[in-house]
Amino acid sequence: MSVSGTINLIWLEGQDCAGCTISTKQASNPTLIDVLVGTIPALGEIRLVFHPTLMPDWGEDAAKVLVDAADGKYDPFVLVLEGAIPDESKAVGGVFCVVGEVGERILKLEDVVRDLSKRCAAAVALGSCASFGGIPHGSPNPTGARGLLDFLGKDWKSGLGLPVVCVPGCPPRPDNIIQALGSLVLVARGVTPVPELDEWHRPKFLYGYTAHELCPICGFYAEGKDAHAFGELGCLGGIGCKGIITNCNASTSWTDGYGGCTRTGVPCFGCADPNFPDPPTSPFFAKAPAMAFVKETFAGNWGHFKMGLARLKRRKI
Fold it and tell me: What are the pLDDT digits (tens) for 166-215?
């Protein structure tokens, strides 16, 4: 099953800071403008019909888009969630997250997500808050915040038969956002197969390696040279880097080949990990669990031993 014609994007913001939106605007390969104006032919026409931060409409005019979408007036659409979903049953005497009002009806995020999930062609959780609950989910989690994966369930399927796709990070790397969204649009168009996902529903082509494996200064780790204070040269594991337990590619660069956490001397805080901001990703400057380094050391030594044996064999040309 494939979709022809216009694909609409409905982008909701829940318990968030709009950081993922800001990150999306920094994407360079491709840019958000490239996607929306049709620079990439295979993506076809894409319309951003609802985004509380970027859309010009406001008030009831904006909120009515959500009601109309639930009634099927914007099919086919991709549901994008930024921010966590609170549990309104815990909001005694009030509400936690309202995304609009139409007439006398208050549109709670929880209800809107549930309604739209019944019609959407695909559902994408952008950022750690939307993916796994993120900072709002951190202990003691007074609002009962959870991510889209937990809210809809790992067995949930969209109209195209796709599971929830998670793009974690606080915020995610800009190109990760656009490339993940773009890959799903290509799936909807019937151009590419569904990207392989890991156990946390993260696209493996983006989150298949740890930040440690992709780290541009991992040579210091191989040499056994640790930094013990900010500004020193060396592996940042000694001052709290969680890259060894975090699947993420943000250490390579942030946008357009520049930046990147460890590349600029900042330890990875594990913001793309499902447990963030709780242990083992916190406290931020505490060292990652020792067992991760033990496993890495044994695996590395065994790998170097096998490589050494292989090099003793004569090469046939």
Answer: 999 999 999 999 999 999 999 988 898 999 999 999 999 999 999 999 99
d(CA 62, CA 72): 16
Asked if 271 and 167 count as a contact pair (C-beta separation under 8 A), the reply is: no
Q: How high is the mean pLDDT of the chain?
A: 92
For 243, residues 6+ apart whose C-beta sits below 8 A from its C-beta are: 210, 211, 212, 215, 236, 237, 251, 261, 262, 267, 268, 270
Closest by CA to 112, choosing from 130, 97, 128, 124, is: 97
Residue 277's closest CA among 195, 170, 198, 196? Answer: 170
Burial 89-118 (b: 16+ CB within 10 A, else e): eeeeeeebbebbebeeeebbbbbbbebbbe
Domains and CATH numbers, the chain: 7-206 (3.40.50.700), 211-296 (4.10.480.10)
Structure tokens that stand for 141 in this block: 């989690």
Structural tokens at position 118: 């019944």
Burial of 211 (0-12, 13-18, 19+ CB in 10 A): buried
Cα angle value 312/315/317 (rounded, 5°): 170
Calpha distance 78→184 (Å, rounded): 9
Q: Tell me the C-alpha distance between 65 and 58, whole Å.
A: 11
pTM of the model: 0.91
Once rounded to an integer, what is the mean pLDDT over residues 291-296? 88
Mean pLDDT value across residues 282-308: 88
**Number of neighbouring beta carbons within 10 Å of residue 283:** 10
- Predicted confidence at residue 1, as pLDDT, reads 59
> DSSP state, 247?
B
**Looking at residue 77, what DSSP letter applies?**
E
CB 26 within 8 A of CB 253: no
